[in-house]
Every structure is written in C-alpha cells, then in structure tokens.
Amino acid sequence: MNGYQITFFTHQDRRFKGKQIGDWLLHLVQELGLRGASLHAGGESFARGGRVHSAHFFELADQPVEVLIAVTTEEAARLFDRLKAEGVHLFYVKTPVEFGVLGREQ
User: What's the pTM?
Assistant: First the structure.
C-alpha cells in the first residue's frame, strides 16, 4: 500500500484532556480504527526554542516521545481532521511511504 508515515514529536509531561499526549494519540488512533501506532521514548531532543528535553535518572517527565503511524491517504485525512477538531497543538512529520505485511500471522 502507499500512504504516509506520520511521526508526532512531544515529551512525556505534555498532557491533553487529562492524559499524557502520547497515550492520548494511541487511543485516538485506536478509536479511528487505524492499523496501529508505536510510542517510542527518546533519550534527548531540543525544541524550536532551543530548550533541551531529556530523560533523567530520577525524573522522566521531560523525556522526548515519538508516536509513529503508517496510514493511507484517506486515513491521514481522517486523522488530521480529527486532530484539528480537537484543537491539539503538535509538531509532526508526514512522509510518503510504501507499507504492507509479509508472511502469515502465527
């Protein structure tokens, strides 16, 4: 299939509607019936303003987080329509990709 890989970038302590934003995104993807999403924690990043975000031994609140999904063009449109309606503020990268599944589930 052809579509997009969409990667959202945020950090652990960002919240939206009472949930950590990464978890909120995972639930939204599931609610929309998309194939799935992966949440990845990073070690360190910096934002547009130059502020460094990193995971510390005693404090993970500022840890960088990525949420990755692979979607068709139609699914991407539904996702972005919903995000706009929710009014959530997120940075993302949307890259054209080919994706699929190999082999059988066991």
Answer: 0.79
- In the block, tokens 């969409």 appear at 6
User: Can you give the residue ranges of every domain in the chain?
Assistant: 2-98
Return the CATH number of 2-98, one of 3.30.70.120, 3.20.20.60, 3.10.270.10, 3.40.50.2000: 3.30.70.120
Predicted confidence band at 57 (pLDDT cuts at 50, 70, 90)? very low
CB 88 within 8 A of CB 81: no
Using DSSP, state whether 2 is helix, strand or coil. strand
State the pLDDT at residue 106. Answer: 81
Helical H segments across the chain, by residue range:
21-31, 73-86
| C-beta separation of 72 from 9 below 8 A | no
Q: What are the counts of helices (DSSP H) followed by strands (DSSP E) for the chain? A: 2, 8
| Cα angle for residues 52, 57, 63 (degrees, 5° grid) | 40
